[in-house]
Amino acid sequence: MKVNIEVIKGKVYVDREFVWGPVVKVHDIGEYSIVEFHPQLFKNCCGTGEYEKERTEFHPYINGKDTCRGFNSLDEALIGTICYKNLGGNERLSDYLRIIFDSQKEGE
User: Sign of torsion, CA 16 36 94 32?
Assistant: First the structure.
């Protein structure tokens, strides 16, 4: 399903709020659109209706098509989206790269 990636005062879909939380920004990089948003707070596996204002998460689209994936940083989202596009929905390369990058950060 193709979506219209337009930010309108905290909304990413025209006439519909972004399901994962209030939109901070949409990062457009060529055919990729990565939505940065404040995630919803959860308690006992249920959404509370409140949002984490201190942190953001990222949800990518390719040519307006939802990848159905989420990431904790813009770097992870870009790498994951490129891997998804080239290797398909079951790719695990982005997960391995995340482990490598995280272990390098810990070693600094």
Answer: positive
